[in-house]
Specification:
The chain is of the alpha+beta class and 709 residues long. Helix content is 38%, strand content 19%. The protein has 26 helices and 24 strands. Helix 2 (24-37) runs parallel beside helix 6 (164-181), helix 9 (262-271) runs parallel beside helix 10 (311-328) and helix 21 crosses helix 23 (621-634). The termini are far apart.
Length: 709
């Protein structure tokens, strides 16, 4: 007796079903794709217990005629294609005719459908591959497929399913990706009676992204739209302020089909080089449109992978589209987050500080006391109120009671006793001696503060170095030209102090960038960070990172505009060990590699490099040829692009060494020049290593932290 067995139709169906259906999410994927192919504009997905016990997909598509229902659940039955020629240009999501047959073989299925031409609908039941009779019934236009008891007749597959919650999350993930691939279709997802997703179906991709990932994630995305060489790429990518820890947020769609593509991942990640740290990954929702004749979708059982006839146009379109969006981006990361704002009091205000703020409540004029605390003070007991008055009197004594006699002396006294006053109100039992001791422990300012003018004094000399005016804002342009008032003197009030009208804004030195924006350099802290006021924002600039990026951009610009590169001859050739297929790839692109400035010969598993471009070091040669071979084999880029990235990385070190160093003291002109260049080029937001150059703090955020809302 022979050893080769011919399997029965039922067993063959179960084996084939294992390639298409492996969990509830794959069932939902196939059914929703059928709904989309039917022309539906509204699809509803409902599951229970992760889809293991119950799944239902309802659409308003064209429906299935009653005579086609028994045929639809047979293997290799489809309305998408007719002959082999149709495989050359597939425009539908489904085409193999295996989905309904595979699902029916491992579960109990009911199909209810109605076409617009028929007054009544029809239904059919299939139990573990056994097809029932077609019956008439009332139904609305479209199709409803109900799947129950998944893998009930295949216990070997059932035991490999995860928990109900895990399977439900997998189903939601599939539906979310389908929703992003077709924003023109309203998709509703219900899990155990809870609506998990509900899109509008208005064709707006950004609205679907907001619905799927939330408003915070969507707010940090940038639009991309690029078209070249017959390929169009459009959608959204994450801003450099929000890189991801993995590639799970990378979504690519080819002609409306969600796919996983190394070409797309390589293109977007190389585009983000020097914009995010190397250990982080960008996120994206990119739709790629190209001719169906140049892409093969019939290379994977679940159709998650495709094969391009030529990867380079797709790679270049994605790379240049994303790179262009990054260069136009001028968003700077913020200092705080919503959680920081929400928990500001708990995280940043100690209990003793809260107590000290409440002890100065009796004076309603105090700007430090929230309104709620002032109201609550009225309910305090008499003893507490007397105690607060004593504290207020002590504080007033330290501030100086002769402020009415000599305003200047009062101001100076307040400066001297500021920390002493804080010490008093911070501890209800503190006395004057303790406060004086605390004051001595505080380091004094090393910078000498100029004395304020008295009533009989002439305007001090230090005021002449500041711009003056008659109540109008004084502006210093980029070349530091001062604008003065008519008489060249400051306005003085009767007390001898500069009046509010003339000094409030005139002492603020402001600059105008080439783009017309007005900013003010507040100062520098820790010899590392420059503080700049712009409108209602405070910009904190890392001067080393900013200078490093500016130098890098200048060097890269010179490289791009430079003439033909020169080569340097090596006395001893560099040997680069590669696999035989990698050597063949190098040989295939010999002309392009030699145009860069290389000269080499090849052996079976070795490349002998005789000449290299003069702008790179010998240590980079081996890595460069390995990258060349990798991108040629995998289609993850081009030789020219790899060469460009490698050259850019070679510039990182040079720009880092040439930039000014944090922690060192430099003339103020350095800060002014760096700030001016940054505001003239707002697209420069990250250093070549992916670190942020500047962080912004909203005025509203500062007001929130000081309880001034």
């Amino acid at each position: 007796m022979g050893k080769i067995n011919v399997l029965s139709f039922e067993v063959a169906n179960l084996i084939a079903a294992g390639e298409v259906v492996d969990r509830p999410s794959s069932v939902i994927k196939e059914l929703v794709e059928n709904s989309i192919d039917s022309g539906a504009t509204r699809v509803t997905v409902e599951i229970q217990r992760g889809g293991i016990m119950f799944m239902r997909v309802t659409d308003n598509g064209c429906g299935i005629a009653p005579e086609d229902l028994p045929v639809a659940v047979r293997r290799h039955a489809t309305s998408k294609i007719k002959d082999a020629n149709d495989l050359d240009g597939i425009i539908t999501l489904g085409f193999r005719g295996e989905a309904l047959a595979a699902i029916s073989a491992v579960s109990d299925v009911r199909i209810i459908s109605k076409t617009a031409e028929n007054p009544l609908g029809a239904s059919i039941e299939v139990n573990s591959g056994r097809v029932g009779e077609v019956t008439e019934r009332g139904a609305s236009d479209g199709t409803t497929v109900i799947v129950e008891n998944l893998f009930a007749n295949v216990p070997a597959r059932l035991k490999f399913l995860k928990r109900d919650l895990t399977e439900a999350m997998a189903v939601c993930s599939v539906v979310e990706k389908i929703a992003m691939s077709h924003p023109e279709i309203a998709i509703r997802m219900i899990s155990d009676g809870v609506v998990k997703l509900d899109t509008a179906g208005d064709g707006k991709l950004y609205g679907v992204i907001r619905c799927v990932y939330g408003k915070d994630f969507a707010a940090k995305m940038m639009p991309v739209d690029s078209e070249q060489n017959g390929v169009r790429v459009y959608g959204y990518v994450t801003s450099p302020v929000a890189p991801r820890a993995n590639r799970s947020y990378q979504n690519f769609f080819i002609n409306g089909r969600y796919i996983k593509t190394r070409t797309g991942s390589a293109a977007i990640e190389q585009a983000y080089t020097s914009y995010i740290p190397p250990e982080k990954f960008p996120g994206c929702v990119l739709r790629i449109e190209l001719s169906p004749n140049v892409v093969d979708v019939n290379v994977h059982p679940s159709k998650l992978e495709v094969k391009f006839s030529d990867e380079r146009p797709v790679f270049d379109c994605i790379y240049h589209g994303v790179r262009g969006a990054l260069r136009e981006n001028s968003e700077r990361p913020g200092f705080g987050t919503d959680s920081d704002k929400k928990n500001a009091e708990e995280k940043n205000v100690t209990q003793s500080f809260k107590t000290s703020m409440s002890t100065v409540v009796p004076r309603v004029s105090s700007a430090f006391v929230p309104i709620n605390d002032r109201t609550a003070a009225a309910d305090k007991t008499k003893d507490d109120f007397v105690r607060q008055l004593d504290l207020a009197d002590n504080a007033a004594a330290f501030r100086g009671q002769n402020s009415q006699k000599n305003p200047v002396q009062s101001v100076q006294t307040q400066k001297e006793d500021f920390w002493q006053h804080i010490s008093v109100v911070s501890d209800a039992d503190a006395d004057k001696d303790k406060c004086q001791k605390k004051k001595q422990d505080i380091p004094k300012r090393t910078e000498e503060v100029p004395p304020l003018p008295t009533e009989n004094d002439a305007p001090p000399a230090w005021l002449s170095s500041l711009p003056h005016g008659n109540g109008t804002e004084c502006v210093l342009t980029g070349n530091n030209e001062k604008s003065n008032n008519n008489n060249g003197t400051a306005n003085y009030c009767d007390s001898g102090l500069p009046s509010d009208e003339g000094a409030k804004d005139d002492e603020l030195v402001r600059y105008i960038s080439d783009s017309g924006g007005i900013y003010r350099i507040v100062g520098e802290i820790f010899n590392s960070y420059i503080l700049v006021e712009v409108g209602n924002e405070l910009i904190v600039i890392d001067k080393h990172a900013a200078h490093e990026r500016l130098i890098f951009e200048e060097l890269r610009g010179r490289m791009a505009k430079g003439s033909e590169r020169t080569s340097q001859f090596l006395a001893v050739p560099i040997e680069v060990m590669l696999m035989s297929d990698e050597v063949a790839a190098i040989e295939q692109y010999r002309e392009r590699i030699e145009n860069i400035g290389f000269s080499f010969s090849t052996a079976r598993n070795t490349v002998y490099v005789n000449e290299i471009p003069s702008s790179i070091g010998t240590d980079d040669v081996e890595t460069m040829f390995e990258n060349f071979a990798d991108v040629i084999k995998t289609g993850g880029g081009s030789v020219e692009l790899t060469e460009e990235i490698v050259f850019e990385k070679a510039l990182y070190q040079a720009s880092c060494k040439a930039a000014i160093k944090a922690g060192r003291v430099y003339p103020e002109e350095f800060d002014e020049d760096i700030v001016k260049q940054l505001f003239d080029h707002p697209e420069v937001t990250y250093c070549p290593h992916g670190r942020p150059i500047a962080l912004k703090i909203e005025k509203s955020y500062i007001n929130h932290r000081f309880k001034r809302n």
